């Protein structure tokens, strides 16, 4: 029963975070991680459904599909775990198309779910999924310790990520071939249930959920005057020099121009603008594109040219961000503006 409650709580908690308004990438990734892990744990309950209630009867085909669906999510857990650590530790983190490559095995197996048989998992699939999670766990561990050395996050974030490493590490040991024989399916599910309740209690105690999950700098180590000073210099650089038009601009380069550390700059943008570095720069670029599209002098310019002029170095990224910000394609936006004029 504890395992059922834990997996249900994880699914509910993940959906709650995923559907919560806002553009915090770290929170969305954490929500997906919770959902993937909870679906995987729920598979254990399906396997032992008859032990929980002898009257439960699941048709063989449905049982096989549910088991395949649950096990397939093991190939999503590792990449999501690593991406969450990167999103929490890198101030200039943004989701890129290349990250989708990490999910190719997951997508292939998800599509193949109706045709997978138990021998696939027994003779290699389970081992591959475990090795996948272990490798991504080690990469996240490395990311965390490099971040600590470079002082990329505050103490609250470091404690939270350290706690996650411990919880996931215990679960990895539980599901390892060495211990799985003794603890079995339900042992891991029960430990996950305990872990998810501990995480929930820690996150929501004293309103710390935002600070740990995504808002890295709510308790800023920089004083208000220092934050205000960096903001003033940043806005002046953007207004007078249009620094955002540099397609190669990154957090480190911008911080160097402002004579502050990347951590201080990321902290200022997060606290005062409630955005990540990438969102802040892309918003400025979108505003520049909108300004040029409304300018009659640029009516004959190609939209691609205007995008590059505004600092975008990828047309696919530009179209995606512009549509997300305005709800319109650049061409639709331009036509609307011309209609008004």
How would you characterize the overall build of this protein?
It is a single chain. Helix 4 runs parallel beside helix 7 (118-149). This protein has 341 residues and is mostly helical. The mean pLDDT is 79. The chain has 17 helices and no strands. The chain has 3 domains: 2-213; 222-274; 276-341, Arc Repressor Mutant, subunit A.
Keywords:
17 helices, single chain, globular, 341 residues, mainly alpha, Arc Repressor Mutant, subunit A, 3 domains
Mean pLDDT: 79
Q: What is the number of strand segments?
A: 0
The Rg value, from CA coordinates, equals 24 Å
Terminal Cα span: 65 Å
Q: Label the overall shape.
A: globular
Tally of individual domains: 3
| Relative helix content | over 70%
Number of helices: 17
Largest sheet properties? none
Give a quick rundown of the structure.
With 341 residues, the chain is mostly helical. Helices cover 74% and strands 0% of the residues. Helix 2 packs antiparallel against helix 5 (74-89) and helix 5 (74-89) runs parallel beside helix 7 (118-149).
